[in-house]
Amino acid sequence: MRMPRLTAFLTATAVFASAFTLAANAGEVHVLNWKGYGADEPWAIAAFEKATGNKVVNDFFNSEQEMLTKLRTNPGLYDVVMINAAFNDQAMAGKLIQPIDVSKLANYADISKDKAGSPMLNHDGKVYGVPWVWGLTALAINEKSFPKPPTSIAEMWDPAHKGRVIIRDDAVEAVQFGAIASGQNINDIKDMEAVKAKLTSLMPQIKTFWSSENDWNQMVASNQIDIGTYWSGSADRAKTHFKLPVSLVIPQEGAVAWLDAFSIPAGSKNVEGAEAFINYMIDPKFYVEWVTKVGAPVSANTKAVEALPEDAFNRKVMGDPEVAKRIQFQAPVTDEQREKYLALWQELKVNVK
Amino acid sequence: MADQHAIGSRRGLKPALPLLLPAYLWLTVAIFLPLSAMVFFSFMTDLPLAGREWAFTLDNYAAFFSQSLYLTLLLASLRLGLEVTLWCVVIGYPAAYVLAKVLKGRSREAIFLLVILPFWSNGLVRIFSWAMVLREGGILDTALNAVLPFKINIDLMYSYPAVIIGLVHSYVPYMVLTCYLTLQAIDDSLIEAGRSLGASRRQVLWRVIIPLSMPGLIAGAALIFVPVVGSFMEPRILGGRTGTFYGTVIEDQFVAVFNWPLGAALSFILLAVVLVILAVASPMLKRAA
What ipTM is given for this predicted complex? Predict the structure, then answer.
């Protein structure tokens, strides 16, 4: 008597469990993105759910490698994933993402041609990524420490800011920053020694390394830093949302630009919902609300940027042709380069003692 | 009567098995299996996820020896472990002595509670509260400047001393607890005998109290030294640009670059070094005890 009852119980549980999973998959869109990066805004999710009937389930990653690992270890779980264009290649080569039928996305036609046609997102005539927003890794300053904003990257090496400089604890970002400071192409660094020398002389200036927006904002809030590398969208958020004395500086030497795009993972169970979600994310209405309420990078959708007020930073400064000439878009980085950069970065951090 | 006798005298492993089983099952599932998986990873070229190519290799271990970086970091971490242990002895031992031999009754309970109290809060919370205290314009800086007639500038945040302070604070209760247990077990009449035979207070301390409490000191030191050598959270948050240690590099391999094989290999090298140190030190420490 005992055993059959147990078996029955187990079967019942299994049936229930599968019934629940089926029900759960019907109208759910599982989104994988950075935390606090647009796709998880409560007002946006509410609006999307009301409009389409799909339920949004967010999951987050803390580094591109973590995102790739999550895609590899959970095939079929996610419907939408946000991938930096420089990593799109790697995701496609690993068969982690599938081609997107852009004819289903009403807003796709408004995406600027140079972004939509980026070779990083298109392979064999198929679209593997829908450009969402782009931004810069540039400098941001604590307005309290500068009577007028600096124009050169050399400000980071100024002895006046000794112990009040901050940079991100990220090998690729640090090396590319060193490349700009030594006047090189970030995607084709010829003189690694020059990069190393630049970064070595920067080390004594540094207060600490940051790894999240929160670190940066707290350092400014407690007035512990003057200047540091920062992301354009984050600087905007710090000013708009957290009311901190932060402003972005695009140095005359240039800045690193990146493009973030949405992809649909291979094996997605709700491709229709994913398409609806991506279309909503590139919609001007969502973008304007995101910029006004929270602060955001620049939309890849030209109509969305035009919907901003004339003097908005994302329209006026980021849309300035002079700025466009200075910035360098990040190309894919091979694993080999990444490991080389990490070795250099670790060596610099160890020798600082 | 005869039955009871039989139960009492049965000393084989068999009857003990049901009692041991839960603990060993738990150890197998929670410690042994994951650890073996990590040993396995440390000999692989890549993680076998989603059909990625992998093979067995010794490269991950060779990486440690081919770059001076890892050795430098390991030595820095060992030094950190020694310094933190030393400070824990300096601060924890006198406190344990007072608890065991001076205070009695209610006041002992109260002080004991204060020693244990930090354990009740999350480690991360403790470290972040140190960040508020140590930084320039923080609680320590403001408080000292409010009291002192002259102006001093205290900015310990993001420095080596900050890492030491944070770690000592986190680990000193271990030293107090282990020393308290051995000190409490010392018979007061031994101390009185020493005193009545003409030994000075200092001689009693060195010849009676410290040798008898040595097992507690050693246990505390081992409990502190091992985790401190591998610590990464405290150096990262409090150390700033000087906060790169062996533990933080291992963390980077797991979290930032997802090179689990190298991270696992570095961890096992650390484990081996710590075991060698403990093995070399144990006869010496045994003699001392």
Answer: 0.70
